[in-house]
Amino acid sequence: MQPRRWFDILRLRIRSLAARRRTDYELDKELRFHLQQQIAENLARGLSPEEAHYAALRKVGGLTQIQEECRDMRRINYIENILQDLRYAARTLINNPAFTAVMVLTLALSIGANSAIFSVIDGVLLKPLPYHEPNRLVRVHVSNATFPKFRLNPFDFLDYRARNRSFETLAGFVRSDVQLSGIDQPERLAAVRITAGYFHMLGLQPALGREFDTKDELPANAREVILSHRLWQRRFASDPNILGQKIVLDTIPFTVVGVMPPGVEHVGNDHQTLAQGETVDAWYPFTFTGNPANRGAHYLDGIGRLKDGVSPGAAKSEMDALAAQIGREHPGFFDNWRVRLIPLYEEVVGKSERLLLVLMGAVGFVLLIACANAANLLLARATARTREIAVRSALGAGRYRLIRQMLTESLMISLVGAALGIVIAEVGVRTLVALLPPDFPRAHAIHVDATVFGFTFAIALITGLLFGLAPALQSGRGDLVQALRESGRSTTGSGRQLHLRNLLVVAEVSLAFVLLIGAGLMMRSFLTLLHTDPGFQPEHVLTAGISLPQQQYPKSPEIISFFDRLVKNLATLPGVRYAGAGSDVPWTGYNENLTFFVEGRKGTSTSSSRARFHCATSDYFLATGIPLVRGRFFNERDTEKAPPVVIINQILARQYMPNEDPIGKRITFTDEPKEADWFTIAGIVGDVKDTPSSERAEAAIWFPLLQQPFSAMSLVIRAQSDPKLLVNAVREKVREIDPRLAVAQVRLLDQIAHEGVATPRFALFLVTLFAALALVLAAIGTYGVMSYSVGQRIHEFGVRMALGARPSDVRSLVVNQGLRLALLGIALGIASALALGRVVQSLLYGIKAADPLTFAVVSVVAVAIASLACYLPARRATSVDPMIALRSE
């Protein structure tokens, strides 16, 4: 062998090895074999071992250099192969525009829906709360057998704050709106009274000025206020010299000591405070007034920051011990209270977490159905491309290369669908935010951002692999010789492919059935909620809030005079049927409680004698449409000089006075009543729940305004036509009596009722939308499989009809085949829906997750849709002339 010739052959062999992607180990083994051969030849020529070794190295070349050359060739070939796959996939998809459009649109809808729901989940559940180390923040409540979550007594809070060792900072707050006056028109401000260290506990600090300290909690020093950035800009023109200026709140001068930075979010999450993230206009100090020995009143919200390393469980144990100690120091007030600590995140998110996870699961089902549909389409297309794949295999393409090519096509489709899905997600997020219930937490944090883009890209890759893997694995299998021999004749899919497509149809039907069950349950729940008697008539009713400043109206006669005069003036307006005022309006979540005792019965301050307490004028019940069941409403004779009276609701009568006539009976609100402490039951009205989704109404008591006045009341005006026409007139009547007062929270009662069912309506809309999309996709998938099956069996059907089979027999054969798949999917769907029932039970009202009627109706609908999807291909099977079908093969 000539040396140069041998060297060239070795180089060619190495290049061949590189082209075939040999590993470094195989190359090393090959090179060392040839090196040893060359050394042996040199030794035979008489060279010494050392000379023979170096001569061989000079001829063969450096092993490391050759290996690096091979690695470079592998990298270059790999990149070229990827680019070739991409170019081929793009040409293939462009040449099949109908197929590509269907695939891209199907995936775009499902990926876009997933991205939109993920945007909501990301904004509400995944993004951390906008406070320093929010995982250490907990809400502090007390609880007992009657009240699972209750506010703190202010003096109990002082003891907790002074004695605990688990909290770095413990703070309290309570909503207390104020009226800003002296600057243009009076305005009602959303305000919160806070204890010292509130902002420090949240990890916030004012942009201007300072926050409150313990000295500001003293009543003599409490005339200071911190403004929100929004109010500072809107009403004070961003005055940089605002600090130290006086502003009038509820007719009292307050000194501005601070301005918070923009975007400060409130931590509350209930109607008595403010929804989390809602804008607060002003904060002013909470003062501890009254008798420290009286621990009966609970109205302060607690929040604390745990010390680093202290777990909520350890903090709860210490706080429970403190509660027991305080209970022993102040007997008669504690009623077995225990401290309940709830992470702030959990308190803010609330029930929305379950709802969002259910929606994410629902839209995930839609994505899986879309993947199954796409896989079915690709399987059908792979069958049609059998000859192409056979030719490529015959020309040397390995199975790995074919699989990679098919996956490249599916990933390209998925990524194009994701790009379009981002646009759909952007539109979907804006629509979702507009549809969200007004009290939905953290709605301001929902938007499409980099996290959503990353999620969309990831879901596109996963989706492309999911629907592309099965067709890709199937593409390299089969008898390639037979495929080449067919030379253009129609090819049929293998039995394995047919079984896989049938399995995908079963999965689609099963997933769609689960979504249909969820939509059906939510629809029944929503209809049950709508058809439940609310206990009042919300149509044509205007509501508005009026709060009287204590300094301006310090005594009951002034309060009574103002509201009595205002209500009478409103009643004289044209178009007004009834005008009244009450401490609250229905379905706003009012839940203030009072302990009462029935005359003639032994009682203690126990859970058996608590009820919601309200205040109302004589026409309040007529204005709201709450019916009188027995007795009478309040009237003008129920003054402070008359015997005290109350009105109760039906559930209180049933619960505490069963089988008795409550009218004329007396109740009291003190353990040792005097004669003047007894209230006579004058009437019984219908039950009204705190919220529309509450399980039942609570026991309730109403006091007449003329005897027990409240300084903050809600006006309720029933109009003869459109109540919106009365808004300006109501404001004018208030200005006539006191031009310094602001009218706030002007809303229609039917708007309040509408908002009360906003959450179940939102859930119903989305789940129904996803279920409808899933049903359409499942029907398309079933139709596609049956249509493909009919196309492959045209010859068989021609033979059957040529031998005497009737068209109806052929149709029955095709429909029965498809229905077997659909019924199997429905059976699996029923089992899955029953297993997942506990997940959605908390979102339902008035029905069970295993509701038989819903399952029956959805099963009938699913069978009907599946039958239609099977019938259309069945008609095609009988529309072909038998002789043409026979000649086609």
General description of the model:
- The radius of gyration is 39 Å and the shape is globular.
- It has 889 residues and is of the alpha+beta class.
- It has 27 helices and 24 strands.
- The model is unreliable at 1-6, 12-22, 270-277, 487-493 and 603-607 (pLDDT under 50).
- The strands form three sheets. Strands 1, 2, 3, 4, 5, 6, 7, 8, 9, 10, 11 and 12 form a twelve-stranded mixed beta sheet that branches. Strands 15, 16, 17, 18, 19, 20, 21 and 22 form an eight-stranded mixed beta sheet that branches.
Percent in helix: 40-55%
How many β strands by DSSP?
24
Largest sheet properties: 12 strands, mixed
Are there runs of 5+ residues with pLDDT below 50, and where? 1-6, 12-22, 270-277, 487-493, 603-607
Outline type: globular
Taking all Cα atoms into account, the compactness measure Rg is 39 Å
Q: Tally the helices: what do you get?
A: 27
Defining traits:
single chain; 889 residues; alpha+beta; 12-stranded mixed sheet; 27 helices; disordered N terminus
